[in-house]
Structures are given as C-alpha cells and as structure tokens.
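User: I'm writing a tutorial on reading structure tokens. Could you give me a worked example: one chain, its sequence, then its tokens, then a sentence or two explaining what the tokens reveal?
Assistant: Sure. Here is the example chain.
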Amino acid sequence: MNLKGYKILEQIGRGAFSIVFCVRDRELGSYFAAKHLTEEIQDAEEIANLPEVSLIRQVGSHPNILNIVDVIYENKRLTIIMDLMDMNLYEYITARKRPLSENRARRFLLQVITGIDHLHRHGVFHRDIKPENILIKRVKGVVRKEIVQVGDFGTICRVDDKLPYKTYIATRWYRSPEVILTDGYYGPKMDIWAIGCCFFEMLTRKALFPGESEWHTLELIHRLLGTPSKSMLMKIKHCDTRVLELRKYPPEDFRTMLPLVSAYGIDMLKRTLTYHPDQRISAARLLKHIYFQDVTEHKKWSKFSMSFPNLDRQADSVCDLNELPGNSTKPCNSAWSVRSKESILSTKTVHYIPLEGQRERNRTLERLWDMNNTVEKQNLWKQVRDPRRRRK
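And here are its predicted structure tokens:
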C-alpha cells in the first residue's frame, strides 16, 4: 500500500472494514492517522455518499469532533487522513488501576456531549458511541490537559432520512431500548443513552449492560431501570411485543451502584438512561445541566447545594417544560426528583462527599494501596474500614 504525499510508518488499529495506520506528511513532517477502507469502490462518484466524506460537507470542524484533513482515492481504495490521537477512552480506562475520578470523568463527558451536540445541531447522529470511538489526546504544558474527541463516523446518519433506519448498528452493550425493540425506528436520542453508559464505565471500569445477546442486554436494562409497563412499551412505535414475555424486575437505586457520585451526577445519569426516547434528555439540554455549571462557569459546589432535597429546588430554575410528557405546565419537581421513596418518607438529607473530601480520601487510598501486601498492612486496611476497630 502506498499513499501519495504520505509515508506509512506503522499499523495502529484494525476494524471490521478498515485498517488504521500512522503516517507522516512528506512535505510538512506532521503525523496523522490514515484510515484505509478495505472494500473496493468501483465508481469515484460513490465517494461523496460515504459517511465520513459526507460528514465534512455537512458538519464541518469542531474541537470535540475528530478532524478529517484529507481523502485519498487510489487503486479503487479510499483512505481518510485524520488527526492523530494518543489513545481511545477504552485504552485509557483499562490502562488504569482505578476508575477515573468523578471530576475527570465529568470533564471528559462534557467534551463528548459538546461534540455530539454539534452533530445533532447539524442534523446527523453518530449511532455508535462507545469508549473505543471516544479519542483522547494529551496536551503538554504548564497544566496537563486532555482533549477528548468523538471519532469513527462510519455509521453516522441524517436525522431527516426516511424511516426505518438500518437495524444492525451500534455495539450491543451501548444500544438503547428503542434500537433493540424496533426494526430501525430510533433517532438521535440513542447517542444520549450510549453517553450515559460510557459515563458509568468511566466511574467503575465496568460496562453497564454487558449483554451476551440483544435480549440479554435488554434484560440487564430492565434489572436496573425496572421492567416498563405495557402502556410505556406501546408508546414506542413498532415495538417488539415479545418484550412483554420477559421477567418483571423492580427498579434499582442508582446511588447504591455509585455511592460516591454526587447528586447532580446521579441525576444527569438517570436522564441519559431514561427508557423512552421522548423522555430522554437532549444533548443541548444536557449541556445546560447543573452538573456541568462549575466546569463551564468555574464555580464550586457547596456541601448544602449538593444535597438531594436541595437538588429539587435548584433544578426548578433550569427545568425545561417542553421535555415533560405532553408539554405539561405543572411544576417539574417530580420530573427532577432524584430521591428514593425511603429518603422521602424519612425526610433525611443525603450529602455527597465534597470534592475536597474525595481528593483526601483518594490520597489516603493511594497511600494504602502503595503498601506491600503484608499481614500488618492488611490489618491496617481493616481498621480503616471498620469503625468499631478505630474506636478501640
């Protein structure tokens, strides 16, 4: 394989329909990633209809969208030249011994949402958001910075294309309920569902719905969100009625799965993982969520402002009535509520650990995990976890 104007250095990736190389521009000396499509393209006019090529014409460049700098058609093969990134999010997560801190995961997530919002505003959606397609580049400087970009646009689709869309899209673990339950009747909100799955994976290093099949994935969704009612399922157009035969599960509390995540983080996650797509939050509204305000406006959360009961009062100021079912004009406290039934009955206020406390706790854990695995140090770890031993 030869590329006019570029020197091929090494292979850095491989997919079902492409091979990715690291290349160097012979004139500029700059390094890029070259995605070489393995399928032949007989007619050069077909190139304009390819998803990556059409993306350049429709969307344009954005800081959180992988930039395509060149398209080369040689010997009936197409090669797309893109910016070279350091790694993808999956590699970033698996290379670590511990999950990402909530603060770092939130900053990564904000960049992903910004890129997805840019796509949605231009009338296209990605259809395959997953950690492998979220790319990271480390920028060296006085303060280390990580730029996050959305890549791999081989499955993008226009919002105004005629339904139904292609059925077999997206990676199984990140497919939204409407993708599994219908034969192509879905929309941009499927990207939002996948964003929520990626956020959970950043915080835990575990996939949220690692199903062995589509129906197993759906069962895992029901175990977390609860099996939806028949009336809810009937609202999903062209829904597969076989779902009514699945076992009934009650919903779980997100806070039991992520006990150290802030109340705003739990609320944001629940809004991305809403079962019905019409009730799922949009990318534009997600950017305005209070969870990201301190990042975008450089504000710090107080301990009181992050309590669960106070979340309901603060959320009223940013609630969008148009997102509620039927465009209801009633107060939206219930739609924004993140409290469980038990906390409402007991009128208890649940506080999260403030950021300063999280940092101190993480530093303590790091010191503990750096110790040698001796009996004395195992006993010390037990003392840290057991309050009765500390009192003694």
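What the tokens reveal: DSSP finds 17 helices and ten strands in the chain. Strands lie at 6-14, 18-25, 31-37, 68-74, 77-83, 87-88, 124-125, 134-139, 145-150, 157-158.
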